Amino acid sequence: MSGKIEISESGPDDEPAIEALYPAAFPEEDLLPVVRALLRETSGVLSLLALERPSVAGHAVFTVCGLAGQTESVALLGPLAVRPALQRRGIGGALVRAGLERMKAARIQKVLVLGDPAYYGRFGFAPETGITPPYQIPEDWRPAWRSLDLGTAAISLSGTLMVPAPWRVPAYWGA
Ligand SMILES: CC(C)(COP(=O)(O)OP(=O)(O)OC[C@H]1O[C@@H](n2cnc3c(N)ncnc32)[C@H](O)[C@@H]1OP(=O)(O)O)[C@@H](O)C(=O)NCCC(=O)NCCS
């Protein structure tokens, strides 16, 4: 990594830069509706920015979720985006690791992701079978449904993931 990257939580002033980042990182997918809705949540959302001052280099969101019929808290990671010109310099990894540390400190027991198995496998995310997504995902997306245990729970978790409103859009889950 050449420039110095700082990871911090985003604030309202960062929204224009976040809005510019997603269409650049995902030219074929419109993630702005879910990103905007997540940024408007008043609790349970960790929005992390990677800054290479003065520019925003990347962004990641962790959403705290529940499990049907249980008191334990888990979190959903996504979306995650790094400016195309700055990819493959460890910025995505730095965002993921910083978020995982904060989730662990908040006693979150497990972080789930629906994402590229090869990329998230690098951080130890393994196929999740006990916790089911809020909507039925297509069979060929199954390998993308993964989780990382943060070691804060003595029991193995199962049940349906209960997501807040921004994530209750079946299309995000391929349904
Ligand atoms: C995926 C993304 C967030 C990774 O961020 P990044 O800062 O480039 O990632 P890092 O530098 O931490 O890690 C780079 C490594 O991950 C690998 N990698 C990057 N994207 C990958 C992907 N989609 N699948 C598998 N591996 C991937 C690279 O090959 C690289 O490995 P190498 O250095 O050994 O060659 C970024 O490339 C991005 O924004 N992509 C477009 C949006 C996207 O697909 N986001 C969701 C990911 S599911």
Question: Can you offer a commentary on this structure?
Answer:
The protein is α+β, with helices and mostly antiparallel strands and 175 residues long. It has one domain: Gcn5-related N-acetyltransferase (GNAT) (Aminopeptidase, 3-Layer(aba) Sandwich). Helix content is 22%, strand content 30%. It is built from four helices and nine strands. The protein has helices at residues 15-25, 32-39, 91-105, 117-121, and strands spanning 6-9, 45-52, 55-67, 73-82, 110-114, 126-127, 131-132, 145-149, 159-162. Strands 1, 2, 3, 4, 5, 6, 7, 8 and 9 form a nine-stranded mixed β-sheet that branches. Helix 3 (91-105) links the parallel strand 4 and strand 5. Helix 1 runs antiparallel to helix 2. The mean pLDDT is 95. The structure holds coenzyme A. Residues 25-26, 80-82, 87-93, 115-116, 118-119 line the site of coenzyme A.
| Amount of beta strand | 25-35%
Q: What is the CATH architecture assignment? A: 3-Layer(aba) Sandwich
Radius of gyration: 15 Å
> How far apart are the termini?
38 Å
CATH fold naming: Aminopeptidase
CATH first level: Alpha Beta
What binds here, in terms of ligands, is: coenzyme A
Helical residue percent?
10-25%
Biggest beta sheet summary: 9 strands, mixed
Q: What is the CATH homologous superfamily assignment? A: Gcn5-related N-acetyltransferase (GNAT)
